[in-house]
Design goal:
- The chain is an alpha+beta fold and about 130 residues long.
- It has a four-stranded antiparallel β-sheet with strand order 1-2-4-3, with helices on one face.
- The longest helix has 26 residues.
- The protein is globular, with a radius of gyration of 15 Å.
- About 20% of the residues are buried.
């Protein structure tokens, strides 16, 4: 078991709370029959957290991008498998590219033509499983 400093534990808890809220709100929009692009307020609240974990916004496209580097191909493939299972549960699939120990991921929601809460939720999950 790993032990993290209190500040890191609190940050993870806050991140998980934001992720839960996003998922709940995302489901409400889905139940209403539409997935919506993040509002300006939502972007100001949610994107800085992802920028802090090295996600960047794609120039010329409403999308997020991050590159992950692992020890070897087996670790990269294991990571991709965990992400794939979650993506399937969410019915929200990343665009990705893998060569040996590197995985490049781009997130955007095609149904609404840009970033949605689904992307934030999946990016947060991806960050969590990238350190396992």
């Amino acid at each position: 078991m790993r032990y993290w400093p209190i500040a890191a534990q609190e940050a993870v808890l806050e991140e998980r709370q934001v992720m839960r809220l996003c998922l709940i709100q995302s489901r409400r929009h889905e139940e209403a029959g539409k997935i919506q692009v993040l509002t300006l307020e939502e972007r100001e609240q949610l994107l800085p957290m992802l920028h802090n974990s090295q996600w960047s916004e794609v120039v010329g496209r409403d999308a997020l991008y991050k590159e992950f580097v692992f020890k070897d191909f087996n670790q990269a493939f294991g990571f991709m498998s965990r992400v794939a299972l979650q993506a399937e549960k969410m019915d929200h699939h990343p665009e990705w590219f893998n060569v040996y120990n590197k995985v490049h991921i781009t997130l955007s929601t095609h149904e609404c033509g840009g970033l949605s809460k689904r992307d934030i939720t999946l990016a947060t999950f991806i960050d969590q499983v990238s350190v396992l």
